[in-house]
Structure formats: C-alpha cells, structure tokens
Design a protein that fits this description.
The complex is a heterodimer.
Chain A lengths: L1 H17 L3 E16 L2 E7 L3 E7 L2 E9 L8 H10 L7 E9 L7 E10 L2 E15 L2 E8 L12 E2 L2 E2 L6 E10 L1
Antiparallel strand pairs in A: 1-2, 1-3, 1-11, 3-4, 4-5, 5-6, 6-7, 7-8, 8-11, 9-10
Chain B lengths: L1 H23 L7 H18 L18 H4 L3 H38 L6 H26 L13 H30 L11 H18 L5
Helix pairs in contact in B: 4-5, 4-7, 5-6, 6-7
Classes of the chains: A alpha+beta, B mainly alpha.
Chain lengths: 180, 221
C-alpha cells in the first residue's frame, strides 16, 4: 500500500517540482524600428509584443513575439510595403529569445545574447547592452538592437530608386512583471 | 486492499484534477477545447518559424496567447503584397519618367501658343504632350489596378498623393482636349480663343498638382 501510494504521489507531484521558480510577463512595451533614407527618416512603432520569461535553476529563458503588421509608421503605404519587403504575411511574427542569469536582475545593465527570428531568417546578436530599472515587482528594460536588413536577407526597399540604409536599429522599451 | 486501491485512485484523480487546469492556465482561453485548437494552430506556425527549444523550461509561442490570425502564415496575402509592391514600383518609376516630358511640354508650351506661329514648335509641343499623356495614363494604370489589401486604413502622405490625383487626373484629360482645339485654331491661322485659351492655365495647374503629388510621397513634411 505504502509503496503504491508513494509512486502515485511521486508521479503526480513531480511536475509540481519541475515548475518554474519564477515567471515574468511582459506588461507594457514599445518597439521602434528606425529606417534611414537620404530623403526620409522614418520610424515604425509597435506596442503589441507579447512576452514571457521562465526562471529555473538560476537561469531565465525569455521569449518575446511581435506581429510584423503591428508596426505603425504613420504611413499606411509604407507599412504595407514594409510587410511586403520583410515577407510579413509569410512570416507574421518577429520572435526574440534570450537567456539571462536570474541574478542579473540586480544589475543596472545586462549584456544579452539575442536570437531573433524575422523574415524567415534567424540572426544572433551577442552582448547587446540592456538597461534595467526595478520598480517594485516590475522591471523596466530599455536598449537598442543593432539589427540590419542584410542579417535577415531583406532586399533594401528603395524610394526614387535610392535604397534605404542597411542599418535598422530597433529601440526596445519593455516593462516586465514578476509572477511567482 | 480494495480500500487502499480506492484511496490511491482518489489521490491520483485529485492530483490530476489539480494539474490539468494548470497546463491550460497559460493560454488566454476559457475552455480547454479552444486552448487545444489554438495550440494546434500555433504549433503549425511554430514548426515553420521556430526551431524547437532545447530547454523544456523555455517559454513557447503557445504560452504568449497570440491569436491564430497573428501567427498563421498567409502565402496568398504575401503574393498579393508582392504584386502590389511590383505594380506600385512601376507606378513610381513611370511617374518619375512622366515628369520629364511633362516639364518639357510646359516649357515648349510658352513658345507654341504665343505670338510665334512656328509650326515646328507647335509640333514639338504636341509630341511632348502626347508622350506625357501616354506615360501618365500608363502610370495611373499601375496605381489604379494595384491589388488592394483588405482592412487597410489609409494614413499619412499617401492621402495627399491620392487627393491630388483628383486634380491632375481630370487635368490630364482636359489638357489634351483643349490643346487639340488650340492646335486646330492655330493651324488655321486664328488666334487661340474660347475654351481653348484655358489650355495653358489648365496644363500648368495639372503639372503643378502632378509635381506636388510626386513630392508628397518623396519628401517628409
């Protein structure tokens, strides 16, 4: 009786012990890409990213996803062209994965290795500096991802036959909420 | 013995009942069925866009509560966007090319309709005007027949660009008609008179609206 009881107990309680130590949920966010052209400087902003972080054994895995078509530059024609150029209908999400040590939450700056999937390609950005600011149970993270079009094999869109610059830095502002 | 087995079963059922809702709690759906459907649909995208993570603890796309419309690939829409982009690129290039004979037409127009009775100037103006008209309507074709993307609200400078078409579009119909009448009058040795005398003014307004339309999508203001 006691053996079976223990096996049963172990079997069903094991997932409970495998549960994450802490979880982080992305609450507010603002992702802004910047595109440069000799005649234009334009920015597209999205506030529709979703994100989750799971901490276990001192390491936190984060996943952030944002729909490509959620970026708004204030010009519907440019937004549609952007979605076309980055094949946003075929690959509708930009996903960012990173792993950070749990104790990095106490630092003011953290260097993150980011794996970004975008336009059907995966690019890695090493040691991207992100600024952290704690506010109660929330963390505010800001930084800039030094993305380029060539990283994702995107043909640079052109205006009046002049292509945009290869650099498309993405400014990140996020507020994460801790959930035990 | 029977009592102990029953106790184990009850215990197991209790634990199962505790953990099953937890596994669905990470989705935003209120029912387990819709959560499963969403998970299946999201998994399709996850297979195409996301390589499986080595870490079983790492969050997945299913955990983020994205709707299937946000995650599903749509090759038909991509094809539509590609066709639209191609046609609008042609529209842009032809628009720029059209500007060249249009400027030349306006420039030669001052000589063609004035005191000069030079036939060659009039014919040159006619040829440039005809080339402008042909290029203009070919340019317009690519904009008018570019596929529309459902659910798109027009925002930004493109609204000005489209509004100006209501000026230069009718202008590009009226200008050659008035020009033909003026050409006929001039060829008969008459002074340009009547409605034909508006040819120059209509042409300048049309060219101005066309230039403004070109600049509205080229320069930031």
């Amino acid at each position: 009786m006691s053996t079976k009881f223990l096996i049963g107990l172990l079997f069903f309680t094991a997932p409970a012990f495998a549960q994450a130590d802490q979880q982080w949920i992305l609450q507010q966010n603002s992702l802004t890409y910047h595109v440069s052209h000799p005649l234009h400087q334009s920015e597209g902003v999205s506030h529709e990213a979703r994100g989750k972080g799971v901490c276990h054994q001192g390491q936190c895995d984060f996943l952030i996803a944002v729909p490509v078509k959620s970026f708004n530059s204030g010009d519907s024609n440019r937004d549609l062209h952007m979605v076309q150029a980055v094949r946003g209908a075929e690959f509708p999400l930009v996903t960012v994965r990173t792993r950070l040590p749990e104790d990095s939450a106490s630092s003011a700056t953290v260097l993150a290795d980011l794996e970004i999937q975008f336009a059907g390609q995966t690019a890695e950005y090493k040691q991207v500096p992100l600024q952290l600011a704690k506010d109660g149970d929330n963390f505010r993270i800001t930084g800039t991802v030094p993305a380029t079009l060539s990283d994702f094999r995107i043909d640079p869109p052109s205006l009046l036959t002049i292509p945009v610059k290869n650099e498309i830095p993405v400014r990140v502002e996020m507020t994460w909420h801790a959930e035990k | 013995m029977i009592r102990s087995n029953a106790a184990i079963l009850i215990l197991c059922a209790l634990f199962a009942a505790t953990f099953v809702p937890l596994s669905f709690a990470q989705t935003n759906d209120s029912t387990g069925i819709s959560a499963l459907e969403n998970a299946d649909q999201l998994q399709q995208t996850a297979q195409t866009q996301t390589p499986p993570s080595n870490n079983s603890q790492a969050p997945s796309l299913e955990d983020l509560g994205l709707t299937p419309s946000q995650t599903q690939s749509d090759p038909q829409l991509q094809a539509r966007l590609d066709k639209r982009a191609h046609m609008l690129k042609m529209h842009q290039r032809l628009g720029l090319i059209t500007a060249i004979p249009m400027i030349a037409s306006v420039a030669t127009g001052f000589g063609a309709g004035g005191r000069s009775t030079s036939t060659s100037e009039r014919w040159a103006h006619l040829a440039l005007g005809s080339a402008t008209g042909d290029l203009y309507f070919t340019t317009a074709y690519f904009a008018i027949f570019a596929p529309r993307i459902p659910g798109t609200q027009t925002r930004g400078p493109i609204r000005v660009h489209k509004a100006l078409a209501w000026i230069h579009g009718p202008g590009m119909i009226l200008t050659p008609i008035l020009g033909a009448i003026a050409f006929d009058q001039k060829s008969k040795g008459e002074k340009v008179h009547g409605i034909a005398s508006a040819h120059g003014a209509v042409a300048i307004v049309t060219a101005g609206a066309f230039g403004a339309a070109l600049l509205s999508v080229s320069l930031k203001f």
